[in-house]
Specification:
This protein is an alpha/beta fold. The protein has 18 helices and 17 strands. It has 4 domains: about 100 residues, NAD(P)-binding Rossmann-like Domain (Rossmann fold); about 55 residues, no CATH class; about 110 residues, Cobalt-precorrin-4 Transmethylase, domain 1, CATH 3.40.1010.10; about 120 residues, Tetrapyrrole methylase, C-terminal domain (Methyltransferase, Cobalt-precorrin-4 Transmethylase, Domain 2, 2-Layer Sandwich), CATH 3.30.950. The strands form 4 sheets. It has a 5-stranded parallel β-sheet with strand order 3-2-1-4-5, with helices on both faces. Strands 10-9-11-8-12 form a 5-stranded parallel β-sheet, with helices on both faces. Strands 13-14-17-15-16 form a 5-stranded mixed β-sheet, sandwiched between helices. Strand 2, helix 2 and strand 3 form a beta-alpha-beta unit. The chain is globular and about 90 Å long.
Length: about 450
């Protein structure tokens, strides 16, 4: 994160704008909307700036910038077309620890001006960190069409009841109460213009609210193979309302960043031969947190029911009477094959596909080799990296050709994706020579031949 997103209170604060052109006018307008005391330094002004000067909404100094102009200012905006002047302003402001923005020069800025969606008191700021102001404006336009103008009215409506609700409910109870209100019929009444009905309905709801000790809920969510764009809408919604998240090693940082920022994060990741939090403890932790009334997100890489131990966790929750929801995710095999350009089935190469895990509960490698070595079949192996030499050797000994195409896909669907292609005979050595971690899927079958032709995803 290059810039920290913040909202400044500049009410009645002295703010300096250097420049009198169109760009300066836009910046002055924003400062005036925030009730700042605006000083404009420029020999000439646009018609709009001249009008604001005449109305005494701004103070105008009809001269070129001099260092003393910056004194006693809360923030400064340089909006001139003179590079040397802009650089001087930036240096002076930073030297005096004054916030400074130089238009279209983020390298000279201590803060930048975002594109703004204004539904006061609701405000949304969109920024690209100065990389592309045009993209920020396009994103703002898209958001503008999605967010009704009445959301500001909704925020004011909630604010008018906050103190009354605060007297009745605890912090966690209040958050859940308001989430239910804002996603339910009361909010719809207000947004549709039925203010009186919405007010009465909320009054009734507050009067009927009784604080009861009740269990929370567990959300078992598949986080997919890594690309956050592959999450389902339902997964994202539950991720945004969880109180605490238990996540594993295969959940990508980009996906984890979409969890509600205030949620407590607990890492329960496991790797072969290294289980810092055993499965039994994870099950008991889910139960304890839910019985404390929390909404618990169990976030897993891929899909929770495909080698994800989701079934074991759900069994425990059902035995304890804990409510839960299940959200499937795109499993790692599907993501790996799609992004590597390796279809798992193809009429010319494979008419069936089988998923297997590369090690059993006791860490042994004891598969049905005869079933795996069938022709016209794709074999996808989870957690097979450590046992890859044994797997390839056994498949060859049970009749699969040594030159059968095979691939390993590491960190699929992410910018770190790597695809290593070889055969049953050569892949173990290829993998051994590469720096591969455990986040990988092995695909064996003639469909691997299509990788070079169909690969479409190129990590940056």
């Amino acid at each position: 994160m290059t810039f920290l997103p913040i909202f400044l209170n500049i009410h009645d604060k002295s703010c300096l704008v250097v420049g009198g052109g169109t760009t300066a006018t836009r910046k002055v307008e924003l400062l005036l909307q925030a009730n700042a005391k605006v000083i404009v330094v420029a020999p000439d002004l646009t018609e709009q700036l001249s009008e604001w000067r005449h109305e005494e909404r701004i103070i105008h100094r009809a001269n070129h910038f001099v260092p003393t102009d910056i004194q006693s200012c809360h923030l400064v905006i340089a909006a001139t077309n003179d590079k040397a002047v802009n650089e001087e302003i930036s240096k002076l402001a930073k030297g005096q620890r004054i916030l400074v923005n130089v238009v279209d020069h983020p390298e000279l800025c201590s803060f930048i001006m975002p594109s703004i969606i204004d539904r006061s008191p609701v405000q949304i700021a969109v920024s690209t960190g100065g990389a592309s102001p045009v993209l920020a404006r396009l994103l703002r336009a898209r958001l503008e069409s999605m967010i009704p103008a009445t959301y500001g009215k909704l925020a004011e409506f909630v604010a008018s009841f906050r103190d009354k609700v605060k007297l009745r409910l605890s912090f966690d109870e209040r958050r859940q109460f308001w989430e239910d209100v804002l996603q339910g019929p009361i909010a719809e009444m207000l947004l549709s213009g039925h203010t009186k009905a919405a007010t009465q309905a909320l009054e009734n709801l507050i009067d009927k609210t009784v604080v009861e000790q009740k269990y929370g809920e567990v959300y078992l969510v598949g986080g997919g193979p890594g690309d956050p764009d592959l999450l389902t809408f339902r997964a994202l919604r539950l991720m945004q309302q969880a109180d605490v998240v238990l996540y594993d090693r295969l959940v990508s940082p980009e996906v984890l960043n979409l969890v509600r920022r205030e949620a407590e994060r607990i890492y329960v990741g496991k790797a072969p031969t290294n289980h810092p939090v055993p499965q039994g403890e994870i099950n008991q932790l889910l139960i304890r947190l839910a019985k404390e009334g929390k909404r618990v997100l169990r976030l897993k890489g891929g899909d929770p029911f495909l080698f994800g131990r989701g079934g074991e966790e759900i069994e425990t929750l059902m035995d304890e009477g804990i409510a839960f929801q299940i959200v499937p995710g795109i499993t790692s095999a599907i993501g790996s094959s799609a992004y590597a350009g390796i279809p798992l089935t193809h009429r010319d190469y494979a008419q069936s596909c089988i998923f297997v895990t590369g090690h059993l509960k006791d860490d042994s490698i004891n598969m049905n080799w005869d079933a795996l070595a069938q022709a016209h079949q794709t074999v996808v192996i989870y957690m097979g990296l450590r046992g890859l030499p044994v797997i390839c050797r056994e498949l060859i000994q049970h009749g699969m050709p040594a030159d059968k195409p095979a691939a390993l896909v590491q960190k699929a669907t992410t910018m770190d994706q790597r695809v290593l292609v070889g055969t049953l005979e050569t892949l173990p050595n290829i993998v051994d020579a590469a720096d591969i971690n455990l986040s990988s899927i092995i695909i064996i079958g003639d469909v691997v031949k299509l990788h070079e032709k169909l690969a479409w995803f190129t990590p940056c």
